[in-house]
Amino acid sequence: MYMDRHQMNKIKVAVADIDGILRGKYIHKDKLKSALESGMGFCSVVFGWDSGDVCYSEGKFAGWHNGYPDSDVQLDPMSFRLIPWENNQPFLLGHFGTAEGKPMPLCPRQLVRKIQAKATSLGFQALAGMEFEWFNFKETSQTLQDKGFHQPEPITPGMFGYSLLRSGQNRDFMTAIMDELLAFNVPVEGLHTETGPGVYEAALTYTEMLEAADRATLFKSSVKEIGHRFGIMPSFMARWNTSLPGCSGHIHQSLKRLDTGENAFYGEGQEHSMSETFKSYVAGQLLCLPELLPMFAPTVNSYKRLVEGFWAPTRVTWGIDNRTTALRVIPGSPKSTRLETRVAGADVNPYLVVAASIAAG
Q1: Strand, helix or coil for residue 334
Q2: Is pTM, for the whole model, over 0.90?
Q3: Can you tell me the distance from the alpha carbon of 242 to that of 314, in angstroms, rounded to the nearest whole number?
Q4: Would you give the distance in Å from CA 1 to the centre of its chain?
């Protein structure tokens, strides 16, 4: 075992709750061995409260009626990575199961695994990559609370999208995001300033759907940890100020044929290089988007982003390389042809939106 070889006595483990927030703990290496073999208990309250730890008044799974019992968590060895800003602390992700050993329906990571298995059964490998916009403030949780959460101070003023000047002014923070997340196996393909005071945008490297959802969830949490070191508070709120654009959480996706390794979305010689499979995939998402909107817009604040004139879609539409539509078809080479679903905000649970997008397609 890695921990024995490197004389480490603890590991950090985490699960995602229904809001996409990582909930976890440190466990001793001896506990890890038994957890990998037979699972471990984790309090079911993570599915019985909101992002502020306020318990739901009505909840069949976990509540006062059953005393918030433990649920079984299986740790995923394939998720192993080292946290570079914690002296290479070992880390594992897990997912919930039932007492009968079946996947727990409420668990967001289990949902992704279910849809991934469905895609595989149909002869596809589902691929995805998320990109996030977020605001960065010169605040801490304490300073923000002291001012009643009013008027947070952005790290830079002005609107300056794609600004090298603004990037250079916070070079150490941006470099830490790129370099430390790469070492954490959450590679960032691109990072730049976006339009708005203190806004950044990052595109995460494309990969298979479960790893993509893992990376997106870890990215949001990691950026907050890194930012704290620099006196910066990142915010993935969908829209904190109605006079400014909101923050998106777009999902890029495609299907690869398992038998040939080809991109199932690419149709050589067809209009816009769209295969029949791709057209059907787009149609499925257009049909399902209204029903899936709570997954793409999970909070009241989410809907403040979905207004006209602020780079967010407001209707069930699609277009060719069109950034004003809900679904943006990106035609290109046999490798790069893909769909970008632009409805989701940065406040989403990545597991839910990745699963919902690919299931609908």
Answers
A1: coil
A2: yes
A3: 16
A4: 29
